[in-house]
Write a structure and sequence with these properties.
Chain A is an all-alpha fold. In chain A, 74% of the residues lie in helices and 0% in strands. Chain A has 13 helices and no strands. Chain A starts with a helix and ends with a helix. Chain B is mainly α. Chain B folds into two domains: 54 residues, no CATH class; 167 residues, MetI-like fold, CATH 1.10.3720. Chain B starts with 6 loop residues before the first helix and ends in a 7-residue tail after the last helix. By secondary structure, chain C is of the alpha+beta class. Chain C folds into two domains: 176 residues, 3-Layer(aba) Sandwich (D-Maltodextrin-Binding Protein, domain 2); 222 residues, 3-Layer(aba) Sandwich (D-Maltodextrin-Binding Protein, domain 2). The chains are: A mainly alpha, B mainly alpha, C alpha+beta.
Chain lengths: 278, 277, 440
């Protein structure tokens, strides 16, 4: 009964993948249709020696790492906060979760224009109003801006999962610890955090899957720039294969990205596999 | 010791959480406000926008006149529902088998499935485009249903697998002892227990499919274009566009936002990926 | 009785079939520019007249370019009509990707020769016409008459240099505390965005993209001078966040009254001077784009045109729409419904000379002269092997231009020096030209 899904996924993976591998050995530029001669490893050479490649690798790591850090820490914070007794918890929870439902393109456009635009955006207005020089988000801190936008979208997801996990926490255990004189910090470190460990790994796994291929947010805000300041690996492949229309080199980049993604996958799976076996 | 909480602590919690929640929600609130403004008002200072300008539906009419909202909307509905239910159809048997008849490699197969999601879509766009062209699938809803189904299948399988695993095997054995057939077992025992999990799987996948913006933009032109393409035409036009962009954004996200809010409880209950034990 | 009803049924079927064959759907891919949105608004008239329907695909310029190129190069057939520019038309035409429109010359009502020769040439390859223009443009300087007046300045009547523009005009009107920036120029990376300004600027400084042997020249002293000028100018007198501003963003800023000067497309003039869409309609005027060491290639040349992919199954219907959308009657229609100032400019002699247009858009003679002054065949001070003013008409330029655009915008954002930007650009250009086999 697993076989239909396995066959489909195998097909889905293998057919485009083998075509991509095949293309990666051809000189194949969409805008110069001059036959597609076999060129061996040339495309890989060009892609790996592309000055943008190193920057893209670093940016990808910073982006994924930064967003994970913000969302996990923020998510734990929100989960702890929402778990406390308060009035109108339902409404507050809805407000916190709402960004998760917003299309990535929409949220990127809204943040870029209505908030981060230094002339007409709200942040710019506030800064000018207070007599400061407005920050040029997309020019001066492009990577951070994208990290913030994407974190806004994924923080609700982390909050949701961690909050659900919080609710299954044994209150009596906490109270017993409190009676034994354990302070807030030690209760958090020795009881809450271990309880959340599984949920945190799940958050990291799911988000990494999506964050490795962040694309739309970059496309509509910075176009990977200025320079290569906000180009990640996915965007670099997009630039090669669809802006320079060099399908050969783009494919080589795709193959490299797939290899790297698999390394990350193996690493993550190890970590998760251990945690999920229970 | 029962937890008695003073009203003061409760008020403090409410204030802190309320403020943070409001800040998280503010961007959405702000585009709702701007969508009811004229273009000229929409770029004024925030306080002036709020207290010193009129309200109008103009932007919504302009947007509707320029791009047919309902066509894009119905494409979005068909594509996201279609891909989710087709995915469910394939995923349920797989997840069931993995959860109840685990083989030696089950875990590895599952992990491999998840790893397919890490492949960057950009890397395989041109091959997929060529295949779609050859089979006449470009700019068709069926093509998109298929692609998005494939994109989300690993997540669906994994989510279902974790829910199914939580169903105690003894119940199934008891049912079998009572003479239930496999069909009856699935229908009367398994399904009712799995419904919360399936519901949240469905919800999450509808959200993911609704918001998917790479394949939907690149494989469609006009006929099958969903709301993601609708938004793309307001991204950087000539002239002032904040009000129109806001109106279009609200129109694009409102259906999923409303659905998300109504099913929030369901989503929260189910969205654990087996993380809560 | 039975036979009769069968006959009626059959004839009904036949008539259904024929109307179905007559009424067809075509898909048009277009940019979200103001003139195209007007066309979208008027298109129902064509739909009514012919019975056909149009599916519009409206996208932002960069995305449109990627989508249409991808589709046409893979022979995808998703679009029946696409909007393309003067860069794509000859290259794609030569590749056999576009349907030849030579037969438009036989239609006396359409009057192909009424379209300026220069514009037609830009849309042709090997003597075949591959696109018909909606509008064409060069670049000139927009300035605010009220601000100039308040500063006691008079607009130049002769072509000034970029140094003069900066020192004698921009520096004197820059007033950020009151929300007026001395100048707004494109900073958003892209060969069609910031490089459209930087390219002609570099030409004015005597630079060129390639020498006669196709050796990239991006690290030459001329390029350094030009890019340094650009970065210094924008940092001193530009609006904040300039690296995010393309043509459309600057147009919005200018119309909102935030810029004193702006060197950009003549085609924006009707919009900026249109009181319905602009807050500075009455206080904007124009002068020539500046020169520096040379006046060659100082104003760019571009046109937006409609073309039919060779992969379209409905070329006949598409041709009918092309004729309609670029006919004399169409421009007339725009004049009637949107006002004559909003008529797309720079393509037809009959429109340019129309008294109603001249009255509504007195600046149009300036535009016409500026367009005629552009010579894509001789764009630089030093000899070059290519044509094109703000672009180089080879397929590889797109990638190189985008890369250089990114580097220049990084220099503008202060993330690297101009020196680094041009060194990187030169390396990249050498790589690409080697890869493509132009140089060893």
């Amino acid at each position: 009964m697993i076989s239909p899904s396995v066959i489909l996924l195998l097909g889905w993976m293998i057919i485009p993948l083998s075509l991509t591998i095949y293309f990666s050995f051809l000189r194949y530029n969409l805008i110069t249709p001059t036959g597609n001669p076999f060129v061996g490893w040339e495309n890989y050479y060009w892609f790996l020696t592309d000055p943008s490649f190193k920057a893209a690798m670093i940016n990808t790591l910073v982006m994924v790492g930064g967003i994970l850090l913000i969302t996990v820490i923020g998510g734990i914070g929100f989960a702890l906060l929402l778990d406390r007794p308060m009035w109108g918890q339902g409404i507050i929870r809805i407000m916190v979760i709402a960004p998760f439902f917003v299309m990535p393109t929409v949220s990127a456009l809204v943040w870029k224009n209505m908030f981060m635009n230094p002339v007409n955006g709200i942040f710019g207005r506030i800064a000018t109003g207070l007599g400061f020089e407005p920050i040029d988000f997309m020019g001066q801190i492009p990577l951070l801006s994208i990290v913030l936008i994407v974190s806004w979208m994924w923080l609700p997801f982390a909050t949701l999962i961690l909050f659900t996990a919080m609710q299954s926490l044994d209150q009596e255990q906490l109270e017993a610890a409190e009676m034994d004189g354990a302070g807030w910090t030690s209760r958090f470190i020795f009881i809450v955090l271990p309880h959340l460990a599984r949920a945190i790994t799940v958050v990291i796994l799911i988000q990494t899957i999506f964050l490795l291929s962040i694309f739309a947010e970059i496309l509509v805000t910075t176009n990977g720039g200025p320079g290569t300041a906000s180009t990640n690996l996915t965007y670099l492949i997009y630039v090669s294969s669809l802006l320079q229309f060099d399908v050969g080199m783009g494919s080589a980049g795709g193959v490299i990205a797939i290899i790297l993604a698999n390394i990350v996958a193996i690493f993550l799976m190890r970590m998760i596999g251990k945690n999920l076996d229970a | 010791m029962a937890r008695s909480v003073s009203n003061r602590a409760k008020a403090l919690n409410t204030a802190v959480a309320g403020t943070l929640g409001f800040l998280m929600f503010f961007p959405i609130l702000w585009i709702i406000v701007l969508s009811f403004k004229t273009e000229e008002d929409a770029i004024r200072a925030p306080l002036e926008v709020l207290f010193n300008s009129g309200w109008t539906l103009e932007s919504f009419f302009t947007v509707q006149e320029r791009s047919d909202y309902f066509k894009h909307f119905s494409n979005s509905v068909i594509i996201s529902l279609g891909s989710t239910f087709l995915g469910l159809l394939i995923a349920v048997p797989a997840a069931w088998a993995m959860a109840f008849v685990p083989a030696k490699h089950t875990k590895n197969v599952l992990m491999w499935m998840l790893s397919t999601k890490m492949l960057p879509p950009v890397g395989v766009l041109v091959p997929i485009y060529l295949i779609f062209r050859d089979y006449g699938l470009l700019d068709t809803r069926i093509g998109l249903v298929f692609v998005l189904m494939m994109m989300n299948l690993p997540i669906i399988i994994w989510m279902l697998y974790t829910y199914f695993k939580e169903i105690p095997g003894e119940i199934l054995e008891a049912a079998r002892m009572d003479g239930a057939s496999l069909r009856e077992e699935i229908l009367y025992v398994l399904t009712p227990m799995a419904i919360p999990g399936m519901a949240s799987t469905v919800l999450l996948n509808i959200i993911l499919a609704w918001n998917e913006a790479f394949w939907t933009l690149n494989l469609t032109a006009a006929k099958a274009a969903p709301l993601t393409a609708f938004i793309a035409s307001y991204s950087s036009p000539e002239g002032l566009f904040y009000a129109k962009l806001s109106a279009a954004s609200i129109m694009a996200i409102a259906p999923i936002l409303i659905m998300g809010w109504f099913s929030q409880k369901q989503l929260v209950r189910g969205l654990t990926f087996g993380a809560v034990k | 009785m039975k036979l009769k009803s069968a006959l009626i049924g059959a004839s009904a079927l036949v008539s259904l079939a024929t109307t179905a064959a007559l009424a067809d759907e075509i898909t048009v891919a277009t940019v979200n520019n103001a003139d195209m949105i007007v066309m979208q608004k008027l298109a129902p008239k064509w739909e009514e007249a012919t019975g056909h329907t149009i599916n519009w695909v409206v996208l932002e310029e960069n995305i449109l370019r990627q989508r249409t190129t991808q589709d046409i190069a893979t022979n995808g057939g998703s679009f029946d009509i696409i909007f393309i520019g003067a860069y794509e038309a000859p290259i794609w035409g030569a590749n056999g990707w576009l349907t030849s429109l030579n037969d438009f010359a036989d239609d006396s009502d359409y009057d192909l020769n009424d379209i300026f020769q220069l514009v037609r040439n830009g849309l042709s390859a090997d003597g075949n016409l591959y696109g018909v223009p909606l509008y064409s443009e060069t670049s000139f300087t927009f300035y605010r008459t009220d601000i100039f007046e308040a500063a006691g300045l008079e607009a130049p009547t002769e072509q000034i240099t970029y140094t003069e523009l900066r020192d004698n005009y921009i520096a004197k009107v820059h007033d950020p505390d009151n929300g007026i920036f001395g100048t707004c120029q494109r900073g958003k990376a892209g060969w069609g965005e910031n490089m459209a300004f930087v390219g002609p600027l570099a030409n004015a400084f005597g630079a060129r993209w390639f020498d006669e042997e196709w050796q990239p020249q991006l690290d030459s002293p001329e390029w350094h001078a030009a890019v340094n000028y650009y970065v210094d100018l924008m940092n001193a007198y530009g609006p904040p966040g300039a690296t995010a501003n393309g043509h459309n963003e600057n147009r919005a800023l200018f119309k909102d009254g935030k810029c004193a000067t702006w060197v950009d497309a003549t085609s924006a003039a009707n919009d900026v001077r249109n009181p319905n869409t602009s807050s500075v309609a009455d206080v904007t005027d124009f002068f020539q784009a500046p020169k520096q060491v040379t006046d060659k290639g100082t104003g760019w040349f571009w046109s937006w045109a409609l073309a039919i992919p060779a992969s379209s199954q409905k070329a006949d219907i598409a041709k009918d729409f092309l004729k309609w959308g670029t006919s004399k009657e169409y421009f007339e229609m725009v004049g009637e419904s949107e006002g004559w100032v909003a008529v797309p400019s720079g393509t037809r002699a009959s429109v340019a000379d129309d008294p109603r247009y001249l009255e509504a858009a007195p600046f149009s003679t300036t535009i016409k002269e500026a367009i005629f002054a552009a010579d894509p065949a001789d764009p630089t001070l030093l000899p070059v092997p290519y044509t094109g003013i703000q672009f180089v008409a080879i397929p590889e330029f797109q990638g190189i231009g985008n890369y250089v655009g990114q580097q220049v915008s990084a220099a503008l954002a202060g993330q690297q020096s101009v020196e680094e930007a041009l060194t990187n650009s030169q390396q990249f250009a050498v790589r690409e030209m080697t890869k493509a086999g132009y140089i060893e």
